[in-house]
Amino acid sequence: MEESSAAAIIDARGIVTGWSDGARQLTGHPAAEVVGRSVRDLLAEDVPLETVSTRSGTVLVRHRDGHLLGVRVRACAVAGGDGRPDGYVVTAAPPGRAETSLAGRAFQQASVAMSVFDTGQRYLRLNDTACRVMGAPEEALLGRHFPETVEEAEHSRGFDRHLRRVAETGRPLRHESRTGAPARNRQHAWVTEMWPVRDADGSLVGTALAAFDSTEHYRARQRLALLNEAAAAIGTTLDVVRTAEELVGVVVPRFADFASVDLFDWVLGAEEAPAAPAEDVALRRVAHGSVGEGTPEAAVHLGDVDLHPPFSPIARALRESQAVVGQAGEPAFMRWVAERDSRSPRGRPYRKGAHSMMAVPLRARGATLGVAVAVRVAQPDAYGDDDAVLAEELAGRAAVCVDNARRFARERGTALALQHSLLPRGMPGQAAVEVAHRYLPSGAPAGIGGDWFDVIPLSGSRVALVVGGVVGHGIPSSATMGRLVTAVRTLADVDLPPDELLTHLDDLVTHLASDDLAEQVSEVGATCVYAVYDPVARRLDVAAAGHPAPALVLPDGSVRLIPVNAGPPLGVGGLPFEATELHLPEGSLVALYTDGLVEGRDRDVGHATGELCRTLTVPADSLDALCDSVLKAVLPEEPSDDVALLLARTRALGADQVATWDIASDPAQVAVVRQAATDRLSAWGLDESAFVTELVVSELVTNAIRYGAPPVQLRLIRDRTLICEVSDGSSTSPHLRRAHQDDEGGRGLLLVAQLTRRWGSRQTSRGKTIWCEQSLTPPW
To answer: How far apart, in whole angstroms, are the C-alpha atoms of residue 469 and residue 481?
Structure first.
């Protein structure tokens, strides 16, 4: 008989009564050795119950030479005279035998891996694809328990659990797994459909499965998920180094076992990219990470510069502006690994097994900023074309974020330098107030704002205290701030009262807004508080434009906000400003600040203002220490806006430092008041200044009597300088002019200007005051 006609006849007791030649060829046993014996003597194990019930299946037969042979059997019952089965005709075929039925061929040739198991998870059938996946022929697997044919791993145990669940519940399942099949050297993803197999009466006799290789779909989903994660995780801050660290955090361990980011030095500084790159590429390590704690594979320490010769993958990637992949065995890759090992021998054991690397340039807006390197050691899959596309996409996104951070840092540095150049570096010497200040630029992504402060000496030992802020952030706000600082100083030099100064400043801001180009759509606005303190009268005049009210702490420890009419912000126009006048005892503390100190997202303005007032009353060693205490107590850890704080403790000039004379409108009074001034200078020990003072008093008093209006008054103030003031009731301001040879007058003010350090005039509510200052020797 042919091999395909292997058959045996078995009676009801299981005794072999017939044996074909095909059976002999299949098992090696001749008929004489088999007929009359129990069929169980030929089996290597008990026939599975499912095979008995279905009279078909796979059984293990022991060949005559001793090896085990899995054969597919099918039994047909032979009825006796009473109609009951009197025996069976059993046909058998080897597992490798080609299928003859259409359904059998479809099963055997299916492109998906298909297998059939009994309820004990033993193989009954496998198609060709399943055999290729398992890496073994069907006859080597038939009858074997599934766990015996796979590696001991979690994914294998999970697969077995699902097979058991189908056999126990009789319900189909879908199982997704990621594993390397025994015949594959790459990680694969599988989607496996498992379902129960039932006989004609519905009894569960086995399980079947079809496994689909979903590796490409899985990797596509993983790539998409990685890109989505990168979009959310990279660029959360405008910090170059932090952005590089975020890229490494996304890549390791999902895409690489080790990753690093190296940047050109110009990216970390304020300069632009060099015109031509050097032959050896010098890059600075800013971030790296790996699956190993402490990144032992790194041959370059963070912050160090590494030189890359032209042959290296890094230099090639920068030169070619595309990802460069290196594999184990390639000369360039081996040279690169050898160079890493020689540079850092301690990391050699951790680099052992590195089999694939990729260098990807970081390019944004036409500029190459650096390179990212990814290396695989434990991951079995080598980098391929799809990985290169993904890496370039990740690097591109990261490069844009790095470039944004670089540009922000550059703009921030420019704005900060501009702002510091406009803010006062050292406070001018004056006796009116003791001052301390703090300025904290914003670290928010919006950039540095336009907050500023100033202390401006005025005539008569008075001083102006200014704090303001410009709407917006960045260089435009700093530039607008510079204009306002200059304008305030100019208007302060004219000696305008606070409310009038803010009116002129409001006009300036309105003009600045109207001068902006329409396409810029830039809104120019600002707030400001301007205060003038007079240490002689001990009076504080304050006016505000949309600005928080200053805080006042009296010597008795009581604290309150100065009741200032805030007025509209600068630039609104058309609305008046009002000044508040206060008389302060010596030693009072005035705190001026910008809204960034007490306002912000998720901050309660009332609570912050109360905390400010409370902290101002806490004893401190100095005003500088008090500034630090206020900032620490009131500000959050990361302020969202610029903060300017100016503290001023008032002083007073005593009666022994001021001398005042009311003068009648009589030219004869000039000599009298001149002598009185000389006597007072002698009493002050300023005899060296008497000669110049006599000339100044004579000229100014004579002009007031001759050209001004009553009442006329002379005041001398002994401060850091000697101040001479002459007031009258006329609002007409004098001015210097060059006297001709035949003019009888016109030389008085010119003489005053030549003899004194500086001079000027200011308007008062009762007229005007002409003043001049002399330096004291020795200095006061």
So the answer is: 7
| Residues 413 and 240 sit within 8 Å (Cβ to Cβ) | no
474: left (phi over 0), alpha (psi -120 to 50) or beta: left
Q: Flag whether pLDDT at 11 surpasses 80.
A: yes
Angle CA 279–280–282, to nearest 5: 130
Q: From CA 647, how far away is CA 597, in angstroms rounded?
A: 13
Largest CA distance in the chain: 167
Residue with tokens 């359904």: 103
Bridge partners of residue 660, in order along the sequence: 715
Q: Which amino acid is at 537?
A: A
Q: Give dist(CA 723, CA 373) in Å, integer.
A: 72
Listed in sequence order, the residues at least 6 apart from 754 whose beta carbon sits closer than 8 Å to its beta carbon are: none
Is-contact 372 393, C-beta < 8 A?
no
Gap between the Cα atoms of 128 and 70, Å rounded: 16
Cα 263 to Cα 370: distance, rounded to the nearest angstrom: 4
Cα 193 from chain centroid (whole Å):
45
In whole angstroms, give the CA distance from residue 117 to residue 172: 14
**What amino acid is encoded at 650 in this protein?**
T
Q: Calculate the average pLDDT of the chain.
A: 85
Q: How many angstroms separate the CA atoms of 336 and 138, rounded?
A: 46
DSSP secondary structure string for all residues of 548-563: PPPEEE-TTS-EEE--
Helix axes 240-251, 385-422, angle to 10 degrees: 160
Contact 376, 291 (CB under 8 A): no
Q: Are the CB atoms for 226 and 384 separated by under 8 Å?
A: no
Task: List 542's β-bridge partners, or say none.
Answer: 531, 580
Euclidean distance between CA atoms 452 and 780, whole angstroms: 30
Q: Running DSSP on this structure, what letter comes out for residue 253?
A: T
Tokens of 604: 């309660």
> What DSSP string describes 69-107?
EEEEEEEEEEE-TTSSEEEEEEEEE-TTSPP-SHHHHHH
The predicted pLDDT at position 747 comes to: 62
716 contacts 680 by C-beta, under 8 angstroms: yes
Query: With 0-12 CB in 10 A as exposed, 13-18 as middle and 19+ as buried, what is 722?
Result: buried
Residues 6+ apart with CB under 8 A from 629: 615, 618, 620
Q: Do residues 431 and 464 lie in contact, with contact meaning Cβ atoms separated by under 8 Å?
A: no
Both tokens of 467, joined, read: 């704090």
CA 415 to chain centroid: 20
699 contacts: CB under 8 Å, gap ≥ 6: 748, 749, 751, 752
* Contact yes or no for 256/374 (Cβ under 8 A): yes
Percent of the chain with pLDDT over 70: 87
On the 0-12 / 13-18 / 19+ scale of CB atoms within 10 A, 228 is: exposed
193 φ, ψ (degrees, to nearest 5): -95, 125
pLDDT at 415 over 50: yes
Omega of the bond prior to 331 within 30 degrees of 0, cis?
Answer: no
pTM, two decimals, is 0.60
The candidate with the shortest Cα–Cα distance to 309, out of 344, 284, 279, is: 279
Distance CA 184, CA 175 (A): 20
Residue 331 neighbours by CB distance under 10 Å: 9
Residue 686, SS3 per DSSP = coil
Residue 759's CB is within 10 A of a number of other CB atoms, namely 20
- If we measure between CA atoms, which residue out of 591, 588, 590, 592 comes closest to residue 556? 588
The 10s digit of each residue's pLDDT in 23-65 is 888 888 998 899 999 888 888 777 765 565 556 667 778 888 8
CA dihedral 90, 96, 100, 102 (to 10 degrees): 120
Amino acid at 278: A
| Angle, helices 475-493/498-515, rounded to nearest 10 degrees | 140
